[in-house]
Specification:
mainly alpha, 5 helices, 0% strand
Length: 170
């Protein structure tokens, strides 16, 4: 079924796998839009509070390698990969699952803005070597963690109906 509106007037999707030009794919839009925003907000608060608590347990001095932030971001990326792998294996995932856990909890938990500030702070303090190591460790580690998480999510939680979701990380 096609969209009755002129091209370019489609609403924005909260899910990159949803083509909102196709009305049949708009389960999350319309009456559920406030619910999507609500679960993202609640999840974001939960994720941010988890991150804040870890930062209190594991403070990093300004002139040291920001290992707490690196660990938070890599753990969050691994969890995002697992979540996407599991959701990809589900025949009919709950429509609020990805917005709550992915965008909300894990989006609030990870902190790539702090990553950027940490690099700037390290450079300002003359620690270019640490800043460069942190820059590359986070970038490479994040991509690897998402890939590993996706692989694990697909392997550990295969589809119940026995079909294969496919994808490059099988």
């Amino acid at each position: 079924m096609s969209d009755p509106r002129p091209p370019g007037n489609e609403p924005a999707s909260t899910d990159p796998d949803v083509d909102l030009r196709d009305v049949s794919q708009r389960r999350e839009y319309g009456a559920r839009h406030p619910a999507v925003l609500g679960v993202i907000a609640v999840g974001g608060v939960i994720g941010a509070l988890l991150r804040y608590q870890i930062g209190r347990w594991w403070p990093t001095p300004t002139d040291h390698f920001p290992s707490a932030t690196l660990t938070i971001n890599l753990t969050g990326c691994l969890a995002i990969g697992v979540l996407l792998g599991v959701i990809g294996e589900m025949s009919s995932p709950p429509p609020l699952l990805r917005p709550f856990l992915g965008t909300g909890v894990l989006g609030g938990f990870t902190t790539f803005s702090t990553y950027a500030v940490d690099i700037q702070t390290l450079l300002r303090h003359g620690d270019a070597g640490i800043a460069l190591a942190y820059l590359f460790a986070t970038a490479a580690g994040a991509v690897a963690a998402v890939g590993l998480g996706l692989y694990l999510g697909r392997r550990l939680f295969p589809r119940a109906d026995g079909t294969d979701a496919g994808g490059p990380l099988r």
